Amino acid sequence: MTSHPAKHLSPSLQFLILVAITIGVLLVGNLIGAGLVMAFYGLDMVLNIAQLNLAAPGTANALWILQILGTTLPLLFVPLVFARFVVKQPQEYLKPSSNIPWTLFAIVFCVMMISSPLIELLSRINQHMVFPEYLSGVQKWMRDSEDKAEKLITLLLKMDTVFGAIANVIAVGLFTAIVEELMFRGCVQTIFVKWTGNVHAAVWITGILFSAFHMEFFGFLPRLFLGVLFGYFTAWSGSIWPAIWAHFINNGSAVIAVYLYQHKLVKIDPNSTQIFKYPAYVFSFIIVLFLLFLYNNVAKKPKTAP
């Protein structure tokens, strides 16, 4: 009997291979994306985007080409190739099983809805964090980088029609949820479970890496919180689908909120960090803990045959 190829690769080596593949594929994807933008819109468009001159016609379409070819498709390619051809254990590393209680999806929905005050609180804490004086230059660089990223996101999420909103819900909500969860809660978290031998450590390490990957320091804590939620959804159920569902709810609802605000259908600015009061934070914390306890117990029930 031959052993699985993954057993010949230590978790640390698996992680290094995954990182190397990711960097390589992202570089290739960005080069292809930039090439297509130059082919369709000219070199000036690439230079304008790099300099944040975003007023030229077609800039939004060019940004979408760069986003899809430079990030979305590469991040889908990486976990699929890694799980299928490197470790050759796609079931374990991608966790595609749907043989789970469907009640979990209802619990996940409730968690994501009720956790909004907690996410706001963490965002407020993050926004008010101040670096020591000797790191003021680093803080300024981080703030400037995030301001630039916000300008790009604002353009990408400019939705003039309902069709544009639906397209963004699919692209930003669904596709991003699938590729990032396969990458992080699928491959990365599985590697760290094997590496540390501790599910909780793996969930938190993966959450930290997930948040750091987005390179938004002033959104680090709320994204870490979300990453940990997604991690436990996957670890306790053994399936990637609850995490994808949770990620989709988070991203999709954000897109819908932006659309409604842009068209003055709601008055609450989605970027506001002062919507809830402190009692809501406490209530949210208690209910989310209860729902996670409930999720864990439901997930532990014996599974029926598919």
TrEMBL record:
Its EC number is 3.4.-.-. Pfam families: Rce1-like. Residues 165-252 form the CAAX prenyl protease 2/Lysostaphin resistance protein A-like domain. The chain crosses the membrane at residues 12-43, 63-87, 99-119, 161-179, 191-211, 281-298. InterPro entries: Rce1/LyrA-like_dom (IPR003675). Keywords: Hydrolase, Membrane, Transmembrane, Transmembrane helix. GO terms for molecular function: hydrolase activity. This is CPBP family intramembrane glutamic endopeptidase. It comes from Mucilaginibacter calamicampi. The lineage of its organism: Bacteria, Pseudomonadati, Bacteroidota, Sphingobacteriia, Sphingobacteriales.
